[in-house]
Amino acid sequence: MRTIQDWEVLHLLADWRLCWQDFLRWSAYLANVRHGRLYIKRVKKRTGGYYEYLYLQHYVPGGHPFQVRVRLEDEESVREEIQLGNFAHSRLKYLRRKIRHLSSLLRQKLGEEQLLQLQEEYDGIAEAEHFRQQQNKLREPDHNYKIISSRGDRVRSRAEALICGILTDMGIPYQYEKEWKLRDGTTIKPDFTIQRQGKQLFLEVCGMMGQPEYEAIVAGRKKLLQKNGLQEGRDVVFVYLKDSQKFDSRVPTDLAIKIVSGVQPLASVWAG
Question: Which of 5, 101, 185, 240 is the most buried (most CB within 10 A)?
Fold first, then answer.
């Protein structure tokens, strides 16, 4: 995709990606709760009077009604669940309309070919969201991941949590500490893996620069990446910090804008 410099298009792209992320989260939620409407069905007794049965009715994607019997003693808890489920269902309907509208605007701005490239990003967004949910379950008992970002990722540091928020606000799908195997067989876990123009971009947060031992580790990581054909600026970008408490969020925000707009090559930055 060509470099995008139109701010209106950048905002549309960010909204489009955020809508897809929101859509996937609500879809996952709706798959685990009931929604629809409750109604009482009366059946006449032979001896007089009526039996009362409680049913839940909702619609499957084909549009056909689906009925499930609910125990009367569970009515209160089921009603609460249905209220949340119905909200999720209405939210999904709204997001579908918004995604169609944004896609139409992007088609006018970028053309059909680039819109098709954007549609392929849906797979990357879906994969990133699924990966986040699975990894958070694994990290929950690990005290090394005690900080939770605004999107719900369990991360190691405050700086990483802030970068999670910046990437999310910009609508950039990412995977935190996804495992990758390099050409020589070495396994690495970059802090952030970002899908950019059909390729992976690794974003590494180096939070203890100024300490000789840590800087030696960073230098070793750079040599390993170069040995395996990964170039700084094209395949990997470093965000350097000497003091994570003095994190300048404007620096990674500018970097995120460049990632969205397709600027090449990127440059590693100091953010604190």
Answer: 240
